[in-house]
Amino acid sequence: MLTHNDIVKYKMFDNDAFSQWLGIQLIAVSEGNVSICMTVREEMTNGFKIAHGGITYSLADSAFAFASNSWGEQAVSIETSISHTRPVHVGDVLTAETNMENKSKRLAIYHVKVTNQDDKVVALFKGTVFHTGKKWT
Question: Which pLDDT belongs to residue 1?
Fold first, then answer.
């Protein structure tokens, strides 16, 4: 039987080319919770020389996906939103931590807090998933 860590690491993370390109690293995994981090690179910036909003969104979305799938059952996103609270710069180390707010048989709601290396919140993300009922094998 696969553990929560096995599902996230071997079924999702290792097969996620985009998360690999972002440079995401797994920090911690438990049932319904994940902590991941990444360093912002030059090619991730926009015309203002700050990180494109899609970078923090993608980090949070990966944390959301890994956490919601850690229950042993495949989950798919049905709604997400993000608030960017502070600019992100090249060299910043971002950490995304999930918090499951509610879970029923088919739906679950997660909040993801994204912080920088100074522990300052740079983005707040909310997502809802649908649990398909299909087990990870």
Answer: 62
